[in-house]
Amino acid sequence: MKRAESGFTLIGLMVLSIALAIGTIGFMQGPCRCASNNPEASAQASLRTVRTVSEQYRDRFAAYPTDLAELAANGYVYSALGTGLQSGYTFVLVGTTTTWTCTANPTTASDEGRYFFVDESGVIRWAVGVAASVSSPPIQ
């Protein structure tokens, strides 16, 4: 009697390996394109980080941070954001005991550049060609 063989064939393994390689390459290119080619998305992500860590800072120290350098010095943001320059944007955080605001303005001014603003309300706002403020429309 002939014994039944089980297992994978060489062709089957090659097809599976190629499919996994193609999927991995496609997955890895997606995040790279987003981060390097979209400074506005990076600026918005940084403002979300500032929003979150400013509340954490207030919970710990009973006051908001006065600037980004203070957040960086206490380990709440990495040093690049702590300098205020990142991904083609200049970030400025101004805080008091009870309030704070943070703006993100393009380092190269243009009539079509998007400017961003967030405060202790947590709502990120934007404007085109001019600095965003508390009266600017929120990001949807």
Round the Cα radius of gyration to an integer and report it. 23 Å
**Count of separate DSSP helical elements:** 4
| Sequence of strands across the biggest β-sheet | 1-2-3-4-5
Query: What's the number of domains?
Result: 2
Helix content: 40-55%
Total strand count, please? 5
Distance between the termini: 70 Å
Which class best fits the helix and strand makeup? alpha+beta
Biggest β-sheet, characterized? 5 strands, antiparallel
Order of helices and strands: HHHHEEEEE
Shape: elongated
Model regions low in confidence, pLDDT < 50 over at least 5 residues? 31-35
Average pLDDT rating: 87
Strand percentage: 15-25%
Which helices and strands appear, and what pairs or packs with what?
Layout: H1 10-37, H2 39-61, H3 68-73, H4 79-82, E1 85-86, E2 89-95, E3 100-106, E4 114-119, E5 125-128
Antiparallel strand pairs: 1-2, 2-3, 3-4, 4-5
